[in-house]
Amino acid sequence: MATVPFDGAKLGGLLEEAGIDALLVSSRHNVRYLTGGYYDHFHALATRGGSGQYVPFVGIPRGRFDAAFYVGGMGEKRQLEAMPIWIPAIHLNGGNGPNSARVAASLLKDRVGPNATIGVELPFLPADAFQSLQRDLPHARFVDATDLLHELRAIKTPDELATLRRVAEGVAGAIQATFRAAHDGITTRELSSVVAYQMASRGIEFLWSFTCAGPSFLRAPSSMVWERGQILHLDCGGEIGDYLADICRLGSRGEPSALARELHAECLQLQNDIRKFVRPGTTYRELAEAGEEALHALPHAEIGRFVAHGIGMVSHEQPMIATRSDRRLEAGMVLSIETEFLHPSVGHVKIEDVVAVTPNGYEGMGDIGREWQIVE
Amino acid sequence: MATVPFDGAKLGGLLEEAGIDALLVSSRHNVRYLTGGYYDHFHALATRGGSGQYVPFVGIPRGRFDAAFYVGGMGEKRQLEAMPIWIPAIHLNGGNGPNSARVAASLLKDRVGPNATIGVELPFLPADAFQSLQRDLPHARFVDATDLLHELRAIKTPDELATLRRVAEGVAGAIQATFRAAHDGITTRELSSVVAYQMASRGIEFLWSFTCAGPSFLRAPSSMVWERGQILHLDCGGEIGDYLADICRLGSRGEPSALARELHAECLQLQNDIRKFVRPGTTYRELAEAGEEALHALPHAEIGRFVAHGIGMVSHEQPMIATRSDRRLEAGMVLSIETEFLHPSVGHVKIEDVVAVTPNGYEGMGDIGREWQIVE
Q1: Which chain A residues in 261-300 lie under 8 Å from chain B, judged by CB atoms?
Q2: DSSP characters over A70-98
Q3: Does the CB of B310 have a partner CB in chain A at under 8 Å?
Q4: Distance from CA of A291 to the nearest CA of B (A)
Q5: CA–CA separation, B287 vs B111, rounded Å?
Q6: Closest partner residue to B123 among A46, A126, A203, by Cβ?
Q7: What's the pLDDT score for residue A2?
Q8: In angstroms, what separates the C-alpha of A197 from chain B's closest C-alpha?
């Protein structure tokens, strides 16, 4: 049997539990996850072309990795030769949604028959590809496997943790460098460009930057100037190969006010205190409740908010702390933890960190620049 | 009636011709086109989150711009306040595909009734959103409007041309700077990172880089080293607000061979000669045939290829030269023009330019670095 770059036994169990005969994955992140990092480099960011959109497929019949297939476009041939993947059957006569779907439908019919239950990613499958699948497999049942794939990815391997650490350090470093680029008249739109450039110089793909110059609560980059005496938060996302980090740091042009300092100190206190709950065995409910309790013990609780959510290839994946379930944290899960205060005269004070669950507790990834970034 | 940032009369005509009662657009580029540049900054690159994908909608009932609507997520409120759009009805109770679709279906029912023909972008509409639309509007007919939107965008305004010029110059400049970063042992993967960084430093969003070190034809960035004595082409895409440029330049570590020089000279000759056909009134067929004829007059024609295609918000949009129709070029159309030779002992020699049709002829956008980029 083929050796797969993910937990094959876990996938088998999840598919069986869901009654899925074959998985047919099309999102960039899950194609990368299931192939072990492969994606057509040309279409990774430029998906649109001509009258359609590029769509690849990874197909995996339940329990039969030797019957797995990949469908892509003819331009991928040399890249796949240079970076071979484990999947035995490579079909490059697809490309756009309907073409790839036609090839995938034929391969699925051969492997699991015309009446199978097929797990697809409905939020990431373009309608033209879905129509083509339905037309070619009129007796198949299509069910959404998005959450099943979140579950498959819930526990990160040491390699994945190394990538997430590199992304977190790169995003935190890019943010710190961006604060230092401040000058009179700099707009939040310019700051956003600097973040993107600082990420690119660290090999990180820019995803977003919230640039909030207090006391305004406008977080979208705009023509607003970061003035002397104002705080600014940079809440930024970046990724490498679909592994993302989401980090927020706080700066000030000149000394922050006493009130701003209090709010930042409360953020840090909560962000630090909650970490003792980040360890294998803590339930999602315990973590969420501990965060709420710690928040309510703080002087400015009434304008504060605490949130924790899983992060990896998707923001808000497992562990889904918001569900407040009795499910327990496990080593290899990764969290985004955030504390914020919205104060009408100071602005939006926020610290957000990436924290991994380790066998003995936690690891703060990208823990640099959490102190005030004071610039001129 | 609302003033719209596109040719409203042309859109009305196209919708009437297609029998479409309302347009419902969801792709990032067409949302930007129809709103005049707006898109949720948080989700422009990070579309995935939780169990779904972010999907906004712009809805336009035919001929009734005052009844147009926008559907997005609640996080967009402050950005829309800071950067108002012309659309009168803003609904921010959508977000992911099914939520946005539910809101859009209700608005469409109010405006065009339950039996209308709705123009959607099937390649850019996620299946979960499409299922929701079909469920809520069971008597509506959904048709693909992707090509209609290409047609709407075919003639670029002066502002759009200015953006395309800025992108082309930025991409060409980034490529030139990347050649200069060469050093012993540099891999094509590192060169690709440098291109991304050089684009970001120019305010350009990186899309792709083909990095082909001859005599290999592997164009995907990899661990392959660009050795002394080898040519390298950098065929790169970048964008600003969904307006893209696609440019290829040629470098050599040390002096290129006489044969490499001949192939490059033939590329440039064809690229230059074909420009006299780029003017209002030339038919698509004439341009394609002139390119073929010019290619066949060159010494290495048998290993050469000439291609021209429209470019703007999408690669391979109008003018669709490949159709070889009798349609004529018009001022404001923009072309990507490429000539290449694949030689087994030299490698992949290629020059690609962005050329706009002007009232009197053509404008080469980003025409820098077309000569050999010779580095150590």
Answers
A1: none
A2: EE--GGGHHHHHHS--S-SEEE-S-EEHH
A3: no
A4: 21
A5: 44
A6: A126
A7: 65
A8: 5
- CA distance, residue A151 to nearest chain B CA (Å): 11
> What value does the mean pLDDT take over residues A145-155?
97
Within its chain, how far is the Cα of A329 from the centroid?
A: 18
Query: Among B364, B352, B365, which residue's Cα sits nearest to residue B212?
Result: B352
How much of chain B is in helix, strand and coil states, percent to nearest 5? 40, 30, 35
In the numeric block, which tokens belong to residue A338?
């955030």
**Whole-number average pLDDT of chain A:** 97
Q: Could you count the other beta carbons within 10 Å of the beta carbon of residue B1?
A: 8
Q: Which residue of B has its CA nearest to A142?
A: B127
Under 8 Å CB pairs connecting chains A and B tally to: 169
Contact A60, A34 (CB under 8 A): yes
The CA distance from A310 to B240, in Å, is: 31
- Tokens (6 digits) for B304: 């050469």
Q: Which residues of chain B have a CB within 8 Å of the CB of A217?
A: 78
What structural domains does chain B harbor? 8-152 (3.40.350.10), 158-375 (3.90.230.10)
* Per-residue tokens: B265: 């000279």
In the predicted model, is pLDDT for residue A211 greater than 60?
yes
* Contact between B180 and B375 (Cβ < 8 Å): yes
Length of chain B: 376
Decide if B164 contacts A154 (C-beta within 8 A).
Answer: no
Question: Which one-letter amino acid corresponds to residue B165?
Answer: R
Each residue of B269-313: pLDDT tens digit?
Answer: 999 999 999 999 999 999 999 999 999 999 999 999 999 999 999
Mutate to test the interface with B, among A29, A45, A348 (most CBs of B within 10 A): A45
Q: Which of A337, A333, A362 is nearest to A351 (CA)?
A: A337
B107 interfacial to chain A (CB closer than 8 Å): no
For residue A45, what is the nearest residue in chain B, using CA coordinates? B207
Write out pLDDT tens, residues A309-327.
999 999 999 999 988 999 9
B127 in contact with A, Cβ within 8 Å? yes
Tokens encoding A11: 């996938």
- Is the per-residue pLDDT at A337 higher than 80? yes
Q: Are A40 and A76 in contact (CB under 8 A)?
A: yes
Residues in chain A closer than 8 A to B201 (CB atoms): 197, 200
Strand partners, B48: B53
Q: Check A51 against B147: CB less than 8 A apart.
A: yes
| Cα dihedral B97, B98, B101, B103 in deg (nearest 10) | -120
Find how far residue A323's CA is from the centre of its chain: 18
Residue B2: its pLDDT value, please?
A: 65
Report d(CA A46, CA A28) in Å as an integer. Answer: 12
Using CB atoms, pick whichever of B78, B120, B237 lies closest to residue A46.
B237
Q: Measured between alpha carbons, how far is B162 from A370 in angstroms, rounded to an integer?
A: 41
Regarding pTM above 0.95, the answer is yes
| Chain B neighbors of A319, CB-CB under 8 A | none
* Residue A94 · residue A100 · CB < 8 Å: yes
Nearest to B124 among A46, A126, A201 (CB): A126
Q: Which residues pair with A196 in a beta bridge?
A: none
Write down the ipTM of this complex. 0.97
Which residues of chain A make contact with B123, given a CB cutoff of 8 A?
48, 51-53, 96-97, 126-128
Q: What confidence tens digit (pLDDT) does each residue in B69-109 have?
A: 999 999 999 999 999 999 999 999 999 999 999 999 999 99
List of chain A residues whose C-beta atoms are within 8 Å of the C-beta of residue B79: 218-220, 222
Question: Per-residue pLDDT tens for B107-156?
Answer: 999 999 999 999 999 999 999 999 999 999 999 999 999 999 999 999 99
Separation CA A136–CA B284 (nearest Å): 36
Cβ-based neighbours of A59, under 8 Å, separated by 6 or more: A22, A23, A24, A25, A68, A69, A70, A71, A104, A107, A108, A111
